[in-house]
Structure formats: C-alpha cells, structure tokens
Butyryl-CoA dehydrogenase
Amino acid sequence: MAWDFETDPEFQEKLDWMEEFVREKVEPLGMLGIHPYDVKNPKRNKLVRPLQQEVKDKGLWACHLGPELGGQGYGQVKLGLMNEILGGATFAPIVFGCQAPDTGNAEIIAHYGTPEQKERYLEPLLENEIVSAFSMTEPQGGSDPTNFVTKAELDGNHWKINGEKWFSTNGKWADFLIVMAVTDPDAERHKRMSMFIVPVDTPGVEIIRNVGVYGQQDGSESYVRYTDVRVPADHLLGEQGGAFAISQTRLGGGRVHHAMRTVGNCKRLLDAMSRRAVSRKTRTGVIADYQSVQMQIADSYIELEQFKLFVLKTAWMIDKYQDYRKVRKDIAAIKALMPKVYHDIASRCIHIHGSLGVSNEMPFVGGLIGSMVMGIADGPTEVHKVTVAKQHLRKYRDVEDPMFPEYSLIHRREAAKAMYDPLGELSNAMEPAE
C-alpha cells in the first residue's frame, strides 16, 4: 500500500534550491518598479535573463512542458510543489518559464498547433522572447463561452474577426493573442466557437484601454476591440468548432498551479501575522497571548493545511488518471475553495497588523483583492460549485428512495433483527430505552 507524504530526496533538493533562489534573488525584483512581462524593456531583460539562465542550468526551466519542448515533463504533484514556492514572488513564474497566461497558451499551441504555428509563435514564447494574451472573456458574456458574440467569418483564404474582448491579460505587452470567436452559430452550444492566433499588430486590433485591478498603478487587463481583423486561414488553432475542448485542456492543470501559488501566498501571510503577533507589545505582554489572536492563527493554519492537502491530492489524481475529465469535480472544488481560504487568511493578517495592515506600506490588501480575483478568474466560484454538485450527484441519479428510505433507523433496526435475531431472542435488549 502506497501512502506517503514525503518528497523524494532528489526532488526535495531542487525545491530547497528554488526556495533560497526565489527568496534571495527573485523576490527583490518585485520592488524595483519594472514589470515582469515587459520583454521589450532592456532594464528588465538585463536583470531577468541571467536569472532565467540559472534556472535553465539547474534543469528547472518550463518544467510543465515535455523534453521535446525544452521542459522536464513533470506531473502535477511536482509542478504543484514548485508553484507553492513561486507563488509569493511576482517575478518567480517568469524567471522559471511558467508564467500565466503564456504557459496555457504554449500548451495548446504545442497540442493543437501546426508546425508553422509552433515555429513562429511557440518557440519564441517558450524562450520568453515574446509574451502572449488569451482573449476569451467578453463584456456582455463574462467567462461563459456559450454567451460569446465575437464572430469569425471565412472570407476567401482569410478569417475576418469582429467583436470585443474584456480582461485579455497582458494584451498591452503581447505579440499575439489567442482569440475565441463564434464560427458556427447554428452548431450545438459547445461546438460553435473556434480559436485563432492573432498577431497584435494586425490591422483592426485595437486596445481600447488597459484596466488595472484595484490598487494597481499600471493596469494590464486589456479591453480589446476587433474590427474586420483579417488573419490567414492557417491561423485557425486546432479544428473549427473545437475552441471549448481546447480551452478545457488549457485550464485544468492551470487551476492546480493557481491553487498552489495561493498556498504559497497564504504561507507568507500566516508567517507575517505570526511574527506580528509575537512582537506587537501590549500593556500585559504581546498580542499573541490573547485568545482571540490565537484563534485567528489556529484557524489560518488549519485552513491552509487542509487546502494544501486537497490541492496535492487533486494533482496526484491528475497524474494517476492522465485524464482531466476524471478529476473534473476535484479541480472545480479546489477552484471554489481557493478564494475563501485566501480571503480569510489575508483578512486576519490585515486585522492582526492593525492600521499598518490596511496601509500601502504592506502588501496585505493586495492579497485580499487577489482572493477576490481568484473567485472570478477562470470562472466564478458559483459556477465551479455547480460543477462539483452535478458531478457528485451523478452516482445518485438512479436512487428512488421511498418516503421512509432504507437508511432510516426503523428500516435499519428491522434489517439488523432479520440478520442477527430472526427468532426475536434479542428483541427486548434492542428496544431503545424510554
């Protein structure tokens, strides 16, 4: 029987190196006022490229990809443990070649792209020479693809795209966008859309504005308008009508990575509130001596450990089954749980720090907003809870219990008598006391 909570020593050495490397060299980059995705900035590249090379020399670059694409082909458990370390440093994912949305975009081009698409877009993307954006969400439709209205029509040997997309992350720096558009309006709901690779300098691509999440000084969530945007027919990604299936391939593993990065963020919040609790003096001692503070510390630790184990179990299931459909319920469950755990721990950290906690001299309010973002990105929490419930109830669809079901105490007692006391010799002993 295999039941182990230890990491093999060889991989643990890699994790130990990562933790020190991220803490000592990568975290400080986030304090310098440059953006990790601004690949055209020479100052950024002068700082980031040497660190990326160190990662490559350690064999830890783009580990989510297979060896044929320069990665290690790690499974989700290993990737999850790595992302826990990367979660607390803004530059860490890009230094390790596993930044969203580029990772997901690279994955679907690797799976569904033509050789020409891979050469032109995938190879420079994997080397972080360029960055990309995933242009899916729409202003009127949110993240529900069945409500999208952006359309693509075949016009000779080109596709003509018209519509608007909202929150296309990093569109302001992207060299190309992966756009989901309706190509078959009369097909069944999940086969109406297709995906296209659209170079950002194509005539008709207009970034209306770059929106910032509250508290950000420099927004990078692009509101994009497509007006008669013409791309060659060979820029279709995968099969026509296959966008929904492609997007599910893209999102499954990414949700595990988001969750483990959230674990990393929450660990840092718990560490900060613990340090504050034992150092903040009062008239009679420190605030860690107060039971109310102890309850907040305990709740945070318990919730974090439960969540981490749930995420790693889900990662293990993905590695075991190699089929995201078999793990759909658990992937949805960790996505639904993630914003609540993040929110609760961030809010306690803010509270324990008092006025300093709500100030712009601490990063904690950013964590609180981040938790709300996690409750919206890749589908709102409510949608994932519905998925969990539907998946869970499938095995109960054939149940037809009577008014008093077989698990009622009356039926169970009669069944026990029939099995162990057919002659009624124990009947008096089995009667409940008055």
About this structure: The chain has a mean pLDDT of 92.
